[in-house]
Recover the amino acids of this structure.
């Protein structure tokens, strides 16, 4: 008789969750799982979590929400008009400096409402311009540099008029029940009516 | 374009439907107020027809309500409005019938004129051909006879010989039957006492009015399982931008519905838009205040 094999090692994700969030409420585990997914599957960098207070008059027992923010390796979303502008200028995604994007971690079965989504958007900080690193600007030729400057000026103007869309956030969803295989589904959510990318 | 209809446009309320029977009103509302409605009229002989439908135009209660709130239209109980048909003066009735008759005669005259013109052209062409052929082969007299027979098939009136020239005068006396689509020329426009209160609307109305105010054309969303489809311009010229679903402010949203809508929308090159009014019915005096408090969010699959 062979001796009982030792139980398998818990997965890296399980270890991370049990080590970091033992004390916290269940939402913290969801946040960690999505953070892990962003970091190792989608190779995001500079990941942070932000606790945001959501004042909801109807549901007082809701735990505070956590948002994740990070910098994706490639652009997740480009507004169709912005894309057109970039095409006209001959700019590629890789020319632009990376942008910080916010993510709402959610789990299937969690209760959401228009009120809650609105509250998340209202608590969302405007992306500070100082967040950008100037390093990517250094190794490009003068011509591209000029185009980029023009692009950033245009982008700043577009932010005010919202012609390239308003605030946006990535909605991340995990299924924690039966059949939850660790898949995280990502959806881009815009504040207001923003025309779809392909139409 | 043709003349704008007098305002407010009467919307006929018949067995819980809001209908428009005047083509002038339909084109005016579409052009000026971005209200498209749905054409539901079939040919009487082909009631199972389901494409190329015509008048009447059915409006969603939301569309009717929006027009009434704007002061562009009013709701008329059509059954009551037609009670006056019996009390119509005999003189008015006769005059109306005579009017219809003369309209029919006019239409007939136009049609026969056009026919006559076409026939003249065809004859002229034939004569030219005949002349050309006669020049080419003077011996082919038998052929001209047979071609004349063909002409007779296409122009049966010509077989009557010289009488054909004055057919136009004889047909003008017979007239076409005119079926008017609306009954407001004989009847006076419905008085304001017959106007019904503004239509009651579903809970999705504030989002409807919000999107309409932003220039979107909205149509019913049955095809994609949503409340409305939002077009950035006339739906004959543009593809829809959004599948619109309305929620109450604190109504629970199942995240699976967001996935389903977001994925379906992206699959058909549209966005999935959900939204609702912050203020509830109890908090405001009229619907317009609720429309101002609408928040909407568009959702697309991120592709990652």
């Amino acid at each position: 008789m062979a001796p009982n094999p030792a139980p398998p090692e818990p997965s890296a994700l399980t270890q991370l969750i049990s080590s970091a969030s033992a004390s916290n409420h269940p939402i913290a585990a969801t946040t960690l799982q999505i953070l892990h997914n962003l970091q190792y599957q989608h190779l995001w960098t500079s990941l942070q979590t932000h606790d945001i207070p959501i004042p909801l008059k109807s549901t007082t027992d809701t735990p505070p929400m956590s948002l994740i923010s990070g910098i994706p390796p490639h652009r997740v979303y480009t507004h169709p008009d912005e894309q057109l502008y970039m095409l006209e200028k001959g700019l590629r995604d890789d020319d632009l400096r990376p942008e910080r994007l916010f993510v709402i971690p959610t789990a299937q079965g969690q209760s959401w409402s228009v009120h809650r989504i609105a509250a998340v958007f209202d608590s969302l900080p405007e992306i500070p311009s100082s967040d950008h690193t100037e390093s990517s600007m250094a190794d490009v030729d003068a011509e591209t540099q000029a185009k980029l400057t023009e692009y950033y000026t245009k982008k700043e103007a577009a932010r005010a008029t919202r012609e390239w869309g308003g605030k946006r956030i990535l909605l991340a969803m995990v299924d924690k029940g039966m059949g939850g295989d660790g898949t995280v589904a990502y959806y881009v959510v815009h504040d207001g009516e923003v025309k779809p990318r392909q139409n | 374009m043709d003349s704008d209809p007098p305002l407010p446009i009467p919307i006929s309320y018949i067995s819980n439907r809001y209908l428009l029977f005047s083509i002038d009103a339909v084109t005016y509302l579409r052009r000026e107020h971005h209200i498209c409605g749905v054409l539901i009229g079939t040919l009487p002989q082909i009631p199972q027809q389901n494409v190329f439908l015509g008048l009447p135009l059915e409006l969603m209660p939301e569309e009717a309500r929006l027009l009434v709130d704007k002061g562009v239209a009013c709701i008329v109980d059509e059954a009551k409005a037609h009670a006056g048909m019996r009390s119509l003066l005999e003189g008015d009735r006769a005059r109306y019938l005579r009017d219809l008759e003369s309209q029919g005669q006019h239409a007939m005259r136009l049609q026969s004129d056009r026919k006559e013109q076409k026939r003249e052209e065809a004859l002229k062409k034939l004569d030219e051909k005949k002349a050309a052929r006669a020049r080419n082969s003077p011996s082919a007299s038998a052929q001209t006879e047979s071609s004349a027979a063909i002409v007779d098939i296409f122009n049966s009136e010509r077989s009557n010989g010289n009488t054909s020239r004055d057919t136009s005068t004889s047909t003008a006396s017979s007239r076409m039957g005119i079926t008017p689509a609306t009954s407001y020329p004989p009847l006076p426009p419905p008085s304001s006492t017959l106007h019904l209160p503004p239509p009651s609307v579903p809970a999705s109305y504030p989002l409807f009015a919000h999107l309409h105010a932003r220039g979107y054309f909205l149509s019913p969303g049955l095809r994609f399982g949503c409340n409305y489809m939002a077009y950035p311009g006339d739906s004959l010229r543009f593809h829809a931008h959004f599948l619109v679903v309305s929620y109450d402010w604190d109504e629970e949203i199942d995240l699976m519905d967001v996935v389903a809508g977001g994925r379906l929308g992206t699959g058909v090159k549209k966005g999935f838009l959900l939204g609702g009014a912050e203020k509830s019915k109890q908090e405001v005096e009229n619907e317009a205040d609720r429309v101002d408090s609408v928040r909407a969010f568009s959702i697309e699959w991120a592709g990652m």
In short: Chain B touches chain A through 40 residues (CB under 8 Å).
